[in-house]
Amino acid sequence: MEIKDYSKSKSLKVDCSFCGNKIECPKDMIETSKKHMCYECFITRVPADEEIKDVHVDIPTAKMPEIAASGMADKMVEELFPGLWSERKNELKEFSKKDLAAEMFGAGAYIGVKAFMESIKNVKEDDPVHRNNHKKR
To answer: For residue 6, is it within any domain?
Structure first.
């Protein structure tokens, strides 16, 4: 799911394509979105990636960090757990449930923090102001 900042775009009222409730839609998205979805339908329908691809979802700004974190965590588990398990399954099978939970929590925290730090680095590298200031040193 692609997330873009349309906070400066003028909003229009549209109907949720799934329940009919009135929702806000940035004017810039009206023509690019095939359907519109309110936050309640987004939460209760749990749309698949293919289903949501061309859908504008009216997500309250306050909910964005939670949704982004949840999506990132799910993606990391989907992509990284199989490799971790295949590399360490014999070792991990010997752990108590408590030790295994602590080990997996620690691995998840490490991967999450590492991904966050890499994303900050990438943002700074893509920022022309930061790049110009760094070259002057």
So the answer is: no
